[in-house]
Write a structure and sequence with these properties.
single chain; about 190 residues; alpha/beta; Rossmann fold; Esterase; AB_hydrolase_fold; UPF0227/Esterase_YqiA
């Protein structure tokens, strides 16, 4: 019997596995008795190091699908393209090196409060993970909301034009009513719990 597909949740910039979305997923997987099939790594701020950790998580996970939020959606796009995986992207960053330059210097993680310094060299690291043209749009599902106060939802909508897409009116960068979309996310990813 083939192993069940796991879900790798990729948090966004300055976030963590303690995010609201990760918490809702954790509760659902725990209730279903399969908590070990939800992978929620705490990623380092360096894009190169984060991607190395994500590559290692994919290599050791067995069958896996991706769920990325914001910067995590940017990472998930590259990983899905290079590993031929299904991925759901929630309000994803499209060209994060154009957005994150204002965060150089000392930052504090939104959930842990841990201080860290944003290295401007990371902007060039991010450019290395750009997917100029998505070759397998059927592997991606974009979930976005027009009320995203952090990213321009239209950038993601246009960039993922050939992918499966949903756009909700209003909402926020955190993606309001995320819990109502979990069944769709799991179904698209082929994750059975």
């Amino acid at each position: 019997m083939a192993p069940e597909t796991s879900l790798l949740y990729i948090h966004g910039f300055n976030s963590s596995p303690a995010s609201h979305k990760a918490g809702l997923l954790r509760e659902m997987f725990e209730r279903a008795g399969c908590a070990e099939r939800l992978i929620t790594p705490a990623l380092p701020p360096s894009p190169r190091q984060a991607m190395a950790e994500l590559d290692a998580a994919i290599a050791s996970a067995g069958p896996v699908a991706l769920l990325g939020s914001s910067l995590g959606g940017f990472y998930a796009t590259w990983l899905a393209e290079h590993h031929d995986l299904k991925a759901v992207l929630i309000n994803p960053a499209v060209r994060p090196w154009l957005l994150l330059d204002k965060y150089t210097g000392i930052q504090h993680n939104y959930h842990t409060g841990e201080a860290w310094e944003f290295d401007p060299a990371w902007l060039n690291e991010l450019k290395r993970y750009e997917v100029e043209a998505i070759s397998q749009p059927e592997n991606l599902l974009l979930l976005t909301q027009t009320g995203d106060e952090t990213l321009n939802w239209e950038d993601g909508w246009d960039y993922h034009g050939d992918c499966h897409r949903y756009c909700g009116l209003g909402g926020s960068h955190g993606f309001d009513n995320f819990d109502a979309f979990i069944p769709l996310i799991l179904r698209f990813c082929g994750v059975k719990i």
